[in-house]
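Model the whole thing, not chain by chain.
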Amino acid sequence: MDTFGRNYRVSVFGESHGPAIGVLLDGVPAGIGLSVHDFMADIDRRRSGAKGTTPRKESDIPHFVSGVYEDHTTGAPLAVIFRNENTRSQDYSLFRSVPRPGHADFVAGVRWHGFSDPRGGGHFSGRLTLPLVAAGVVAKKILAASDRSGHPVSIAAGLEEIGGVPVSEPGHEALWERILDQAMQEGDSIGGIVGCTVTGLAPGLGEPFFDSVESLLSHIVFAIPGVRGIEFGDGFRAARMKGSEHNDVFVSSRGECATNGAGGINGGMTNGNPLVFRVAFKPTSSIRKTQRTFDFSQGEMTDLEVPGRHDACFALRTPVIVEAAAAIVLADLVLTAAR
Amino acid sequence: MDTFGRNYRVSVFGESHGPAIGVLLDGVPAGIGLSVHDFMADIDRRRSGAKGTTPRKESDIPHFVSGVYEDHTTGAPLAVIFRNENTRSQDYSLFRSVPRPGHADFVAGVRWHGFSDPRGGGHFSGRLTLPLVAAGVVAKKILAASDRSGHPVSIAAGLEEIGGVPVSEPGHEALWERILDQAMQEGDSIGGIVGCTVTGLAPGLGEPFFDSVESLLSHIVFAIPGVRGIEFGDGFRAARMKGSEHNDVFVSSRGECATNGAGGINGGMTNGNPLVFRVAFKPTSSIRKTQRTFDFSQGEMTDLEVPGRHDACFALRTPVIVEAAAAIVLADLVLTAAR
Amino acid sequence: MDTFGRNYRVSVFGESHGPAIGVLLDGVPAGIGLSVHDFMADIDRRRSGAKGTTPRKESDIPHFVSGVYEDHTTGAPLAVIFRNENTRSQDYSLFRSVPRPGHADFVAGVRWHGFSDPRGGGHFSGRLTLPLVAAGVVAKKILAASDRSGHPVSIAAGLEEIGGVPVSEPGHEALWERILDQAMQEGDSIGGIVGCTVTGLAPGLGEPFFDSVESLLSHIVFAIPGVRGIEFGDGFRAARMKGSEHNDVFVSSRGECATNGAGGINGGMTNGNPLVFRVAFKPTSSIRKTQRTFDFSQGEMTDLEVPGRHDACFALRTPVIVEAAAAIVLADLVLTAAR
Amino acid sequence: MDTFGRNYRVSVFGESHGPAIGVLLDGVPAGIGLSVHDFMADIDRRRSGAKGTTPRKESDIPHFVSGVYEDHTTGAPLAVIFRNENTRSQDYSLFRSVPRPGHADFVAGVRWHGFSDPRGGGHFSGRLTLPLVAAGVVAKKILAASDRSGHPVSIAAGLEEIGGVPVSEPGHEALWERILDQAMQEGDSIGGIVGCTVTGLAPGLGEPFFDSVESLLSHIVFAIPGVRGIEFGDGFRAARMKGSEHNDVFVSSRGECATNGAGGINGGMTNGNPLVFRVAFKPTSSIRKTQRTFDFSQGEMTDLEVPGRHDACFALRTPVIVEAAAAIVLADLVLTAAR
């Protein structure tokens, strides 16, 4: 099912080259101010344009189909659609015979018996992250509206690595730009790592076991195309630490800890310390560089160069998507916890 | 909610020192042979006893409350309980004042307003992974019963690292045993990494976006206490690779790939190649070694040595739990895909 | 939540006078032939036009936003919208002060803190049954595509009573037309009873207890605005029968029964006999006739005549909606049972 | 699935002659006082003993498996079991060949391929309403604990008709006792109608469309074995009324109405007036009186007298079950609305 959430439910729909893509949001509280303008900052962050991103341009204007009246949410299901405009009438039938490595062409054909919409990746297109960003915008609004503490929830994601180069160290910008340039010249692609930190969360959000905060966050983060891994707090490094190093000792009556190896989560629930996680994005699958792969119609190996407009590093566009994913989970948990 | 799954639903319940813990399984097909004996191999793998694991011993015999008749599943909900036997009447009230670092003591107190059962960690105890293993046993049976191909699904998890030492290389056993001994002597603990490989899966299981195979697997894996990260295929390394390195080119008409950087998943769905993922476990939180932490009743820092019987490395006991988690997801997907 | 179903999931959205209303269908199998034309017969049955129905006219053309490609379902979520065209710019603010008796004006105001869209009843409009009919069309297609027996499922609903007059008896047509005329002249409205019979169902669909066929059917039937009761087989009359009268004895090895007092359901599951149920619809709430009711802004009683275009007997338009409701449940059960 | 609810989730399990039956409750808030004693009044109301009910006696003592500590709910999943004691080792294999009319014997055999537990009706036994009553007890506690108004929710169900005789009118007790005696003498059975009224509900509980109060209530009420119909407010009579008769006009600023034909619900949500519904129960299916039905093993008609201990009128035992069903829905809605 393309639906996520319990009390704030998000459903995405659409194909890359169909008339529109969209998102249906259920459980949005009534009375939250919401206009098209509220979406544009996050949509712009996701948009292509920077070096290393696809030149496909869309206006990406959200159209409210339902759930908004006089610039406020009504409480009824909120549907938003984005028209697909800049679609190219390229021939995608090649990928029925020669499925692109790293793409869903092959499995979609198996699963949907050849009936999936192949144009631009159809429902599997990265363009479907746009409705996710829209759901994140509304989620951030829900979080802001739910705040009673005066310390609103703040979600900030950013790139930590591009092509293996940490971005935060001085002088590294030139380095990863060079790596990006080189990949583009070679018709190749590179990956990246996104870190996300959430502050202002009350302790006690989430559930033990199946609805742990990590479970819910990883569930939605792996819904973003191209994610290969997720870790919380010390993450994989924790497996190489001693308990005395990894444990976060408490230092105040508010539950603040001296360290944050748990990434702000104990027993599946937020502990009031910053929620911290990192997400690994693979390099873009679509590359111009020649790949030797199988031609299913001919029954033999063949050469494939994936034509079209690609991101050399789509990870560059993902921080706002990761933020949206986190916001969706947290809005659901905050609405649930309000009980 | 402590429930997971769509067509095969697993709910766990119980506290470490209550009368029993258990699992309720809904959606189990009728007519699958099932007896107590079927559970014992996996239960024994999870059981304590080896060096580095707790000396707490339980008989861990499953008792069928419902859903089994004349050694076959009936189709009705299947409830299994495990009596708690070897419980010690230790005083856990200390941890109300001085919550154990790395444990849920603090957040459970906040969330459940001081009413949570503190004995042995209550509902947050690692003992709750026993019902998960039981759910995995039934899931493996469902997978075997669903096989029409003659190539049944095989799930195998094992330790890849203990305390930072890869276990598979020659001579490393002595090394990690030494690390383990040292941690035990110091009253400290170590973590580990578990790898899991699933073969025999048909292509096309899972869904795009929110019910991707990675989403479902990570969801349940993070329900296992002490998990800090999960990665699929090339995992975090993929973020440092080029597309031409990471992409899995096809080499046969059955969809076999030359490499498996995607870990057997494209577009959220299995592609017929082995499903491969790795899970990072933190070091055990309960350590005898003195920790300087906060005393909430006194409002000042204090010294804490966590008494009791602990695993120095609970990761040693987790491969069968990871297998169970994978089996639960895959049984659900296989039942769903049978449509 | 405005979502229903487990393996075939239906979500409706939209407001009567917003840009569009729609439905999102998840879990539709791939490869089912589907075009706009397939919807028109059922949409026409629901449409106004006959005596006793509102003169509001809409073209009610379904627009596929997603999930359909080259006239076949793709397997991806299927979104259909219907533009709202014939909306009148009437002033609905009166109903904030003087909520219409029998309508949701009052409760929507309470629940959604005055932010609900008041125009034409907003999300509570009977117009929202149009997406339900669309979901029913697709459900009927799923049922047809799932048939392996050569005896496809057939769903037929029809009016049994209008204004207390049984419609099936000779000469009664003139009688209920007269009752209808009279109600229209008086600015009043009348109700009706719809019966529904489903044949061709395999035995064993549904679940004991919470997902019994009766539970699922009644759940969705009461989602249709204006339903006051539902009964299966002998229904309320069963409460006045003896066991020896009400019990359905078996008469063949296929499970056929001599009578059908259970309405084709035993233990929550279909028994292979025709599924039979009846639904009671109230008279239309919006009436021109003067009602003495409360003015919340003035704090005193007032006279209200509800202006606008109303059905004198909206029950006339409901048989196809009841069929859709049944089809949705049965498509879900057939997909689930295919496991 | 044998699970119901969103934020208060109820799962039942067990078979009539297995070791125990039980209920798993998820989402119970922490800190609610709860002991075995709290269950006994409602359990006694459901228990057999009165004229017309089965002489099978069980102690029906609830055993807490989890979720209760020091006589308070902990917030963790709450499991309660009831041991099956007074089971008779009667031979149920007859009913494989000659399925009892009105029972699930036939459909369970088809659905579960002959593997269902046949003893005492197995999972389909009316005994499974005992866990439902237990879930209702906890639900009533949740409702009481949630009250902020000083006007707590009150749920009262009672018999309105037995064997077609209204019970509330003077002199009718003797009449329905005579009808009951006669049915018992003839080895036959009779049905009844239960009415339920809920007061003290805040307006605005429930959702438009699929999670309307009527949808949720009817869903769970039809999970009770033997229900044939449900109606709200004026119910089926509404179909024979005019709008001007059926509409409930408002008479106060609190939303009170002059009449209550809608049964306290508008647009799927409570309107603050008493919630009123009626449930029709069929006569008991198990009758001693000879029935002419099909012998599936012989392929011919045969005579069947169902042996054993039966309720001549199980409807007598159902008011507390109907109350429990209502309490479960309302507790879920109150927890959801608290957001």
